[in-house]
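Entry 14. Ran structure prediction on the chain below.
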Amino acid sequence: MNDDMVQIWLYDTTDKNKLTGTTKVPRGTELLVGQTYIKPESGLYGTPMFDEDMLRWHGISKEEWEKTNPHKGGIQTGPSTQQVLLADLMKQNADLKQQVQNQAVINASIMKSVADLKKQSKEG
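Output, C-alpha coordinates:
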Protein backbone atom coordinates (compact mmCIF):
# COMPACT_ATOMS: atom_id res chain seq x y z
CA MET A 1 0.00 0.00 0.00
CA ASN A 2 1.23 3.49 -0.86
CA ASP A 3 2.50 5.23 2.32
CA ASP A 4 0.45 8.30 1.42
CA MET A 5 -2.80 6.32 1.31
CA VAL A 6 -4.55 4.69 4.29
CA GLN A 7 -7.58 2.42 4.53
CA ILE A 8 -10.80 3.66 6.11
CA TRP A 9 -14.00 1.82 6.96
CA LEU A 10 -17.39 3.10 5.81
CA TYR A 11 -20.64 2.70 7.72
CA ASP A 12 -24.26 3.63 7.06
CA THR A 13 -25.44 6.18 9.63
CA THR A 14 -29.05 5.63 8.50
CA ASP A 15 -28.95 1.88 9.18
CA LYS A 16 -27.53 1.26 12.68
CA ASN A 17 -24.01 2.26 11.57
CA LYS A 18 -23.59 -1.00 9.67
CA LEU A 19 -20.31 -1.58 7.84
CA THR A 20 -20.74 -0.86 4.13
CA GLY A 21 -17.20 -1.27 2.87
CA THR A 22 -13.72 0.19 2.82
CA THR A 23 -11.75 2.59 0.70
CA LYS A 24 -8.37 4.29 0.71
CA VAL A 25 -7.80 8.00 1.27
CA PRO A 26 -4.72 10.22 1.50
CA ARG A 27 -3.10 10.09 4.95
CA GLY A 28 -4.43 12.88 7.18
CA THR A 29 -7.73 13.24 5.32
CA GLU A 30 -10.50 14.72 7.46
CA LEU A 31 -13.11 11.98 7.43
CA LEU A 32 -16.77 12.54 6.69
CA VAL A 33 -19.72 11.28 8.70
CA GLY A 34 -19.93 7.52 8.24
CA GLN A 35 -16.18 7.01 7.93
CA THR A 36 -13.57 5.85 10.45
CA TYR A 37 -9.93 4.86 10.63
CA ILE A 38 -10.86 2.19 13.22
CA LYS A 39 -10.65 -1.36 11.83
CA PRO A 40 -13.31 -3.89 12.87
CA GLU A 41 -11.96 -6.65 15.11
CA SER A 42 -11.72 -10.11 13.58
CA GLY A 43 -14.27 -12.66 14.70
CA LEU A 44 -17.34 -10.44 14.50
CA TYR A 45 -20.43 -12.18 13.15
CA GLY A 46 -23.09 -10.59 11.01
CA THR A 47 -22.57 -7.14 9.58
CA PRO A 48 -20.36 -5.22 12.03
CA MET A 49 -21.86 -2.01 13.41
CA PHE A 50 -19.82 1.00 14.56
CA ASP A 51 -20.44 2.46 18.02
CA GLU A 52 -19.55 6.16 17.64
CA ASP A 53 -19.58 6.76 21.42
CA MET A 54 -17.27 3.84 22.29
CA LEU A 55 -15.31 4.15 19.01
CA ARG A 56 -15.40 0.42 18.32
CA TRP A 57 -17.13 -2.14 16.11
CA HIS A 58 -19.48 -4.82 17.43
CA GLY A 59 -21.39 -7.72 15.89
CA ILE A 60 -23.71 -10.49 16.97
CA SER A 61 -22.84 -13.82 18.62
CA LYS A 62 -21.95 -16.84 16.50
CA GLU A 63 -25.04 -18.64 17.79
CA GLU A 64 -27.31 -15.72 16.89
CA TRP A 65 -25.72 -15.52 13.42
CA GLU A 66 -26.21 -19.22 12.76
CA LYS A 67 -29.82 -19.05 13.98
CA THR A 68 -30.71 -16.21 11.60
CA ASN A 69 -28.51 -17.40 8.69
CA PRO A 70 -28.46 -21.20 8.73
CA HIS A 71 -28.04 -21.48 4.95
CA LYS A 72 -24.85 -19.41 4.92
CA GLY A 73 -23.05 -21.66 7.39
CA GLY A 74 -20.67 -19.14 8.94
CA ILE A 75 -19.52 -15.60 8.94
CA GLN A 76 -20.26 -13.10 6.22
CA THR A 77 -17.36 -13.22 3.78
CA GLY A 78 -17.79 -9.81 2.21
CA PRO A 79 -20.04 -6.86 1.52
CA SER A 80 -23.13 -7.20 -0.64
CA THR A 81 -23.29 -5.78 -4.15
CA GLN A 82 -25.31 -2.84 -2.81
CA GLN A 83 -22.69 -2.20 -0.12
CA VAL A 84 -19.88 -2.25 -2.71
CA LEU A 85 -21.77 0.20 -4.94
CA LEU A 86 -22.48 2.48 -1.98
CA ALA A 87 -18.81 2.42 -0.98
CA ASP A 88 -17.81 3.28 -4.57
CA LEU A 89 -20.25 6.22 -4.60
CA MET A 90 -18.92 7.45 -1.24
CA LYS A 91 -15.36 7.28 -2.59
CA GLN A 92 -16.36 9.17 -5.72
CA ASN A 93 -18.02 11.80 -3.53
CA ALA A 94 -14.87 12.14 -1.39
CA ASP A 95 -12.72 12.41 -4.54
CA LEU A 96 -14.99 15.11 -5.96
CA LYS A 97 -14.89 17.02 -2.67
CA GLN A 98 -11.09 16.95 -2.80
CA GLN A 99 -11.13 18.20 -6.40
CA VAL A 100 -13.43 21.09 -5.41
CA GLN A 101 -11.08 22.01 -2.56
CA ASN A 102 -8.07 21.90 -4.91
CA GLN A 103 -9.90 24.08 -7.44
CA ALA A 104 -10.73 26.63 -4.72
CA VAL A 105 -7.01 26.96 -3.93
CA ILE A 106 -6.21 27.46 -7.62
CA ASN A 107 -8.99 30.06 -7.97
CA ALA A 108 -7.72 31.98 -4.94
CA SER A 109 -4.19 31.98 -6.36
CA ILE A 110 -5.43 33.30 -9.74
CA MET A 111 -7.50 36.01 -8.04
CA LYS A 112 -4.45 37.12 -6.04
CA SER A 113 -2.34 37.22 -9.20
CA VAL A 114 -4.96 39.32 -10.99
CA ALA A 115 -5.15 41.72 -8.03
CA ASP A 116 -1.34 42.02 -7.98
CA LEU A 117 -1.28 42.76 -11.73
CA LYS A 118 -3.97 45.43 -11.36
CA LYS A 119 -2.01 47.02 -8.53
CA GLN A 120 1.21 46.99 -10.59
CA SER A 121 -0.53 48.54 -13.61
CA LYS A 122 -1.90 51.39 -11.47
CA GLU A 123 1.53 52.03 -9.95
CA GLY A 124 3.35 51.85 -13.28
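The chain has one domain: 5-123. Will compare against last week's run tomorrow.
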